[in-house]
Write a structure and sequence with these properties.
mainly beta
Length: 70
């Protein structure tokens, strides 16, 4: 879990910068470099996520065209 998390818990991260913007949210899994770090625009940090799985290099939630987000 990134060291700056304030209210995030029960998250599993494997990969540099994965979920590194997360400040709140729980029960997430991120696998891959920067997986789940940004929202779909690629520059706004994903600071809240719950019950999500991000697998892949720089996978962002709500990306268009769609990326797999379980």
């Amino acid at each position: 879990v990134p060291s700056h998390d304030t209210a995030a818990c029960q998250n599993t991260v494997l990969g540099a910068n994965a979920l590194s913007g997360l400040t709140t949210g729980h029960q997430n899994i991120a696998i891959g470099y920067s997986a789940g770090r940004y929202l779909s625009n690629g520059s706004t940090l994903n600071n809240h996520s719950e019950n999500s799985i991000y697998i892949g290099l720089t996978l962002n939630p709500n990306k268009q065209p769609p990326q797999m987000k379980l």
